[in-house]
């Protein structure tokens, strides 16, 4: 937690320096706004940009962009960039070299903290020679680790997601703080129902899903803020400011796609988690499904994420409606973890608090 705290402060310094070194961001935003205004003026005059493909001398095709009068009977393909193709911001550090240095230090500290964190989870399991997620304290420690691991995994995949560092590290610290102060229990052996290899399979996948769902939820919340910022810029109700936090984030379309892709990739794993739990329940209690509170809320969470993905894929939902549905699904996951485990009694009452 101490190392994570240092990483959090390094990310704060990164964002602070970025607010002083993002003059280029303001120029880019003003240029983009000017291009939008110019396009609107052309449309008002009955003029539009069109792209056509023509044969080239080499036997291939060449794409040409021309200005043409709008014709109600013509079929035109516009060459303008859509909302999803808007330019991304430069990141938390803006154009500040010192901010970038602080960000790289923060990532290094995060890697060190994750290694120490993994060591803590491992030694907890070794203390009683079992998988270290038999109660809420142990699950919370593993959940926080997966938050950080999901973030570092995106970085390792060469994704420009360093802006995720501050919310991820902050949430990880809060999760660990609650685990240590409220949920802590001594190392002890498991209840008989948990003595199964399915503990490693079922609970491990649930932990991985939780970390990834959290990363997607952060991207969704930031999307809502960024999308509102872009709308205000387009409407002229706000001005592009040097060093704006929203201006340094990726475009709203980029954040929306990132959230969708994470949820789409993780959803099959969550499906497997529920199936594995049902198989384990049959082995432990003789029935695959008994509508236990944990089972019920796991299924509700599955339905919520399925509705989100279905709306995106078939109903064409984009933007704020889909984002609200994604956040509702993540809220179901959080309640399934904290609410059901602490406040509801059932066969899955292994909180230890």
Please give the structural blueprint:
Layout: H1 2-18, H2 23-44, E1 47-55, E2 61-69, H3 97-128, H4 136-156, H5 165-181, H6 198-235, H7 245-248, H8 252-285, H9 293-313, H10 320-343
Antiparallel strand pairs: 1-2
Pfam family, one: Cytochrom_C_asm
GO molecular function, one term: heme binding
Protein name: C-type cytochrome biogenesis protein CcsB
What structural class results from the helix and strand content? mainly alpha
Element string (H = helix, E = strand):
HHEEHHHHHHHH
List the uncertain runs: 22-31, 54-62, 64-84
Q: What fraction strand?
A: 5-15%
Rg value: 25 Å
pLDDT averaged residue by residue: 80
Helix fraction bin: 55-70%
Oligomer: single chain
Main location: membrane
GO molecular function: heme binding
Pfam families: Cytochrom_C_asm (PF01578)
Protein name: C-type cytochrome biogenesis protein CcsB
Key words describing this protein structure:
353 residues; mainly alpha; two-stranded antiparallel sheet; 5% strand; globular; Cyt_c_biogenesis_CcsA; cytochrome c-type biogenesis; C-type cytochrome biogenesis protein CcsB; membrane; transmembrane helix
In a few lines, what is going on in this structure?
The chain is mostly helical. The protein has helices at 2-18, 23-44, 97-128, 136-156, 165-181, 198-235, 245-248, 252-285, 293-313, 320-343; strands spanning 47-55, 61-69.
């Amino acid at each position: 937690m101490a190392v994570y705290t240092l990483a959090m402060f390094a990310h704060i310094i990164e964002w602070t320096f970025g607010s002083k070194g993002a003059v280029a961001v303001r120029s880019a935003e003003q240029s983009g706004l000017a291009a939008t205004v110019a396009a609107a003026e052309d449309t008002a005059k009955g003029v539009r940009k069109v792209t056509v493909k023509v044969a080239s001398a080499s036997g291939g095709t060449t794409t040409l962009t021309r200005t043409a009068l709008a014709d109600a009977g013509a079929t035109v393909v516009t060459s303008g960039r859509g909302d999803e193709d808007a330019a991304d911001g430069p990141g938390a550090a803006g154009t500040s070299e010192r901010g970038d240095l602080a960000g790289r230090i923060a990532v290094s500290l995060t890697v060190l903290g994750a290694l120490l964190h993994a060591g803590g989870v491992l030694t907890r399991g070794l203390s009683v020679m079992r998988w270290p997620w038999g109660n809420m304290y142990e699950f919370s420690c593993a959940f926080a680790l997966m938050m950080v691991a999901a973030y570092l995994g995106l970085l390792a995949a060469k994704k420009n997601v360093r802006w995720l560092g501050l919310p991820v590290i902050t949430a990880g610290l809060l999760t660990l703080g609650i685990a240590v102060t409220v949920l802590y229990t001594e190392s002890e052996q498991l209840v008989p129902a948990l003595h199964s290899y399915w503990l490693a399979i079922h609970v491990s996948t649930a932990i991985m899903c939780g970390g990834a769902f959290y990363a997607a939820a952060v991207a969704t919340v930031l999307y809502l803020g960024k999308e509102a910022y872009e709308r205000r810029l387009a409407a002229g109700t706000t001005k592009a400011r040097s060093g704006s936090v929203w201006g340094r984030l990726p475009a709203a379309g980029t954040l929306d796609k990132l959230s969708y892709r994470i949820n789409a990739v993780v959803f099959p794993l969550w499906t497997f988690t529920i199936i594995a739990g049902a198989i384990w329940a049959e082995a432990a209690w003789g029935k695959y499904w008994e509508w236990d509170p944990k089972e019920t809320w796991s299924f509700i969470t599955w339905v919520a994420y399925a509705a989100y993905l279905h709306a995106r894929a078939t109903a064409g939902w984009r933007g704020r409606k889909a984002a609200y549905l994604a956040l509702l699904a993540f809220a179901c996951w959080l309640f399934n973890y904290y609410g059901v485990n602490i406040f509801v009694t059932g066969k899955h009452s292994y909180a230890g608090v």
